[in-house]
Amino acid sequence: MKNEAVKIGIIGGTGVYDPALLKDARQIKVYTPFGTTSDLITIGEYAGKQIAFLPRHGTHHHIPPHHIPYRANLWALNQLGVERLISPRAVGSLHEELAPGDIVITDQFVDFTKRRESTFYDGGEVGHISVAEPFCPELRQLAIQSAQKTGVTVHPDGTSICIEGPRYSTRAESIYFRDACKASTIGMTLVPECVLARELEICYLSIEAVTDYDSWSDEVVDTRVVKEVMKKNSQTLRDILLDLIPKIPEGRNQCDCEHALEHAMI
Fold first, then answer.
1. In sequence order, which ranges of the chain are alpha helices (DSSP H)?
2. pTM for this structure?
3. Domains of the chain
4. How far is the first Cα of the chain from the last one, in angstroms, to the nearest whole number?
5. Sequence-distant (≥ 6) Cβ neighbours of residue 217 within 8 angstroms
6. Which residue stretches of the chain have pLDDT < 50?
7. What pairs with residue 165 in β-bridges?
8. Count of C-beta atoms within a 10 Å radius of residue 206
9. Which of these, 154, 70, 75, 155, lies nearest to 118 by C-alpha position?
10. Looking at the annotation, which residues are catalytic?
11. pLDDT tens for each residue of 108-163
């Protein structure tokens, strides 16, 4: 089923996808061994490249983070031939200097999820992939350059905490994540998405848009505040994607993502 022309995928949250972004867009359904994907996958052309877009929470944002069909989503994109996956997401800030509206190009994560299926190797074959450097270095550098053109404050690295959700953190948890884990941001969707991408040897990029200060702050974190800031962040994320996509080269010569399984299998 692989379509070698569709090498770039985007898994986006609410507000990231603009229907006018892709030419000759069409929607397809991909059947997977792991059930249905979050929604239909939209395939279209931008800057001469075929792009596959999948809304992480569904078109109407009806799927909570702990019920997203991560394995189905990644499997489907892999079946279409996707080699590079761009993942914009909303996050909370764990430090004063990371302000709402800022962009963080994540380079590390800490997993605090509790009950998610986080591997394709859960029986039959045993694979131990390395995620010491979990994000594609080539895509990260290209994204930093594109983000800096937007005029917003860009943080070229950062450690992201991924929690189970859908609740926000307590103040004690937030302070622990900030002080003990030395994390920069906090969100609910990074894991296992990036891990599954590595198991499929897909280059993975996380672009984080800060929407709020997390619970360590005296400011109250609620969905109303997050949604208001996310509206502004959505345009920044679209601008980054529009500049980034044409820069992505055809060959994968500057990273080892496509060789992730070479020494992983037992």
1. 70-79, 137-148, 171-179, 193-199, 223-244
2. 0.95
3. 6-259 (3.40.50.1580)
4. 28
5. none
6. none
7. none
8. 29
9. 70
10. 212, 214
11. 999 999 999 999 998 888 999 999 999 999 999 999 999 999 999 999 999 999 99
Alpha-carbon span 63 to 8, nearest angstrom: 24
Count of residues making up the chain: 266
Distance (Å) of CA 220 to CA 42, 170, 213? 36, 11, 8
Residue type, 72: A
CB 227 within 8 A of CB 181: no
- On the 0-12 / 13-18 / 19+ scale of CB atoms within 10 A, 225 is middle
54: tokens are: 């999948």
Instruction: Round to whole Å and give the CA distance between 185 and 12.
Output: 18
β-strands 108-112, 159-163 pairing: parallel
| Three-state secondary-structure class, residue 264 | coil
**Residues whose CB is less than 8 angstroms from the CB of residue 252 and which lie 6 or more positions away in sequence, other chains included:** 83, 84, 138, 203, 258
Residue whose pair of structure tokens reads 């500049």 in the numeric block? 243
* Secondary structure of residue 159 in the 3-state scheme: strand
